[in-house]
Records
---
Amino acid sequence: MISCESAQLPTVSNGKKQKVAAYEVILDDTVLFPEGGGQPDDRGKIDGADVLRVIRRGGAALHYLPTPVDVGAEVKLTIDWTRRFDHMQQHSGQHLITAIAEQEFGFATTSWNLGDKVSSIELDTPTMSDEQMSQLEVKVNQLIMNGVRMYPTLYASAAEPALIEVRTRGLPDDHVGPVRVVTIEGVETNMCCGTHVSSLSHLQTIKLLCVEKGKKGKVNLLFLAGQRVLNYLGSAYSNERSLTGLLKGPPSEHAALVTKVQNAAKLAQKQATMLLRDVALMEANRFLSYEDRPSFMFLHRKEGDNEFMNIIVNQVNDPSVLFFLSTGDEKGAGMFLLSGPEETIGALHAQVAEILEAKGACKNGRFQGKANKLSKRHIIEKLIFDQDPR
């Protein structure tokens, strides 16, 4: 082992960037691939310690470990083969799809992404028809069935004349040493540092999923290769069985049954909205019916909404009345409406916002918005009660 130094490893956890204390280890040689060429890095262990990440810096591979290793020691490396082979299948599959898409249709690849579950290739074309995608899928799977050989070749430097004919997106600015080229026999030769299968038969199969609109004038072709196809099929079948039980119908009728459920839900929602409006009018009319009508009205209705609250205030139509209405989770977050004399609302709204941890707009005697602490409604009710001169 050449070196071991403490370092800060950038990571992402729950969507937030952070740095984790680690040790940066450089070895004389390694079997772990550092991220590059569109391929994520390998994982594994060094003397039993988990390798957190592997990156390239010039000609060196930097391994990040949670614990230090003695400089000069001989270490044992093990690799997460499931992860490695998956990356080999997806990366080799991308090479094959890219080559055939350009040969058959003239669609050049401008970038690609090896995703956690689904990978994508950005093609330099504004459209790709279903027929073209089908033809491409048939062609690449025929080559897989034929077991076409795939192999690497090393060249001493980027100045080698043979590299002129090799497809490439260019070398990194910090590249040093030999240049590696990967060939799919009889199909293409491509400059690449990534890990690949030795035969297309190792890809098992490729499934082209769909084409999505990409950057201006381009499309993204989504695909699966190898074990991912089987994983996807297993997951899809499990979901299909679940839907069959829920919808009480065979897969061939799922789309129609879902449409039926959606239409029923829309009708139910429409009816619920109409009933809620009726309830709002009922609450307002009940308030108006009081002989000794109070100068304030408090009401919370969990299933209500902004329209529900505004209907009540508009139906009562008395700017002298102080309203405090709310909807949603009575012990958590929800919507609220504070309405009444403009001067009173102007004096109260900042205090109400602080107590309820609320945000909203205050205009023309109405303060309306979202509150995070409806559990403190009783405090607001007391504030309003104290405004009553009676």
---
Amino acid sequence: MRKNNVLLLSLVALFLIWALSSCVIYCSNCGCHFNSKYEREVQLETDMCDGLTFAAQTSHSYLHIWGIDENHCYVTAHIRVQADTEEKAKEVAEKVTVDLEKSANRVTTVVQKPKVPYKYQVFVSYEVKLPRKTSVELETTHDPIECRNLLGNVVASTTHAPIVCENIVGNLNLTTTHDPIRLSHITGQIKARTSHDPIEAEYITGPLDLQTSHDRIRCTNLNTERLKARTTHDNVEISFTSMNDPEIDADISTSHGHIVFHLPDGFKGSLSMSTSHGKVRTGVPLTVKGEISEKFISGTIGEGKGTIRLKTTHGSINLK
């Protein structure tokens, strides 16, 4: 017993040493051991006609975009520097320049940073107001992206931070990891990818292709005839607005989670539901094809071209 206790204490000590060293390495890399920082703002503006693309690329910094009813672009760049003293942080921050570069079809942010010691950190975040009829291409890491009130396409990529899009007419291509994607009042084609966090969408008109893992997908008030939603280790819930003669092509799958699918009024077509370790239930009259069991149902509703496929393992399916 004493030998076991000694071994256990040794393992605990080794773990604490490893955790402490990992923390030191992390703090050294991210600069968080510096207590001093300096911040300043740069205001930029330029004429910008409808139909152009605005592009911004940064890291460890946020990107917030708003569409406005003006043919003008306003950019507030927030410059933040972390260093070992406030004087050094200020010295570096004053040497950071931010400009807008214009070409025939786009406006791009351009940042010039001075050479600094490896452990210093320089961050540039953006708040941007631009004409509503603008497409955007945005890339950052470890900080959120928000886009609102645009009549244009959105391409956005970040990591370990959320993406929020609201009131947009245009196609969306969104990628993040370990944080949620939230969509509201979108008209256009949507492709969204994340992991270990939810995807939430409401009042969407247009095709959706959604994928996450280890968290839920929840879509409400959809007006679409094409929907693909995939996750693992969590639930999927789908509901629609009223549509005229919907010919929906829906492919919904998860594992270790439940599926709740609210069928839109007037749907006609084929439907299949299957699970491995759960039950399938329907509150909708079906004309059943072949065998029926508590784990599998395949049938039709009326005569139509719609197709709905619902599949899970270790969960149940409820058709309402």
---
Amino acid sequence: MSNVPPGPNLRGAIDLSALVQRAARPASPGRVAPTTDEDAASPASETRAPSPFVVRSDDASFPSLIELSQTVPVLVEFIAQGMEPALAEIVASYGGRVLLAVVDAQQNPQLAGAFQLREIPATAAVIAGRPMSLFVGDLPADQLGQLLEELLQVAAQNGVSGQLPADPAAPGASAAPVEPAEPPLPPLHQEAYDAISEGDYARAIDAYRRALRESPRDTLAQAGLAQVSLLQRLEGAEAGTIRDAAAAAPESLAAQLAVADLDMSGGHLEDAFNRLLELFPSLDADGKSAVQARLIEYFEIAGAEDERVGPARRRLASLLY
């Protein structure tokens, strides 16, 4: 059975690079080697990669694919041991404009949790470091082709339109386009970024707070503080446990705040907004203050340009006044 969304969209997606542990990056960032014969003999790598554009990935190596998603869209197909990836052939036909990462969902719980998997097989994508859910189950070939074309359009709109060479060492192989160097971050922003890369969310929060003390109108620091606070709250949490707790205690503020965080981390902004706004009228003054503060964080993460923020902000204002 398939569950197909209206179409790919990056609005409200959260940067996965801070959700995935970076402790064991591959030696060559930006590329993951295709599965080898030796890999195929191991229980975690039963599926052989049929092309250089189909790779095996796991909790440890996924950060390099996040980086690669700045060049081409990365499809992520979650399967179970013994299953063959269904998307390998069509991805290979795109000649390096799309990369497919095959992930054993059972062997990689961190990735499964980050993408909020509920069923397998399931397919997601990462574009410019941002994840989006696509569908569960299988799609007919014509629908799959249409979805990939839409995905490439979304990627192009976000500046991701490169192409991977079939063999980087081959004569005449063109490397991915070189992006212009970005200006250096302000020192406290760089400190926060480095801390996030190391998984030290407390140090990143401290750096952003110091940046805001120096410049209270620093909107990038405000958004960064909101996002890293979300990541810190979710660190080590199990998606299933959070959702079970929220379902068992629909009137518990703590449980509903936790599951709203989970929705935000997966880019489900409307679910997060609506959950807290619907709970708001039943709360006491302290509870209302906590929900208001959390929603303001969410609005910072999403950005004022997100079309879902305006209605939610107006609804909050009507509840307050």
